[in-house]
Amino acid sequence: MDPELEKAVTFFRFEDLRIYHKALDYIEWLIIKSKEFPDEGSAGVGTRFILSAQAIALNISEGSARNKSQFIYYLKMAKSAVRECVVFTTLAGKLKYLSEKDVEESRGQLMEMTKMIGALIGSLQRAADLNMEDTD
Fold this sequence. Notes:
Layout: H1 3-10, H2 18-34, H3 45-64, H4 68-94, H5 100-135
């Protein structure tokens, strides 16, 4: 790989986070699945569902450029977006836009992401607590 390109790939901290890549995988999975959804215009379930999924990755990337407390805030916003996706998953299942198997797969991915985000928040909070102890 070109050394300049390699530097560019790792320049952004969030690209080193596994949760960011999980969020991208979920967006990709959802875009593929939502092609089967009926066309409901720009305010349809599929469009809003994808926007919520994108918000997971976007909040992770935006927060990573901030200080620890702000990053934690953005990670909590990412968890809120995960919960939105849970609602859309349930709704899409009820409307028969997603099969039972797809609903289970979506919920599984969302549960994994919320656990990963929670672990990252915990890690950042512990690091912040340790830094405060060092200043006492």
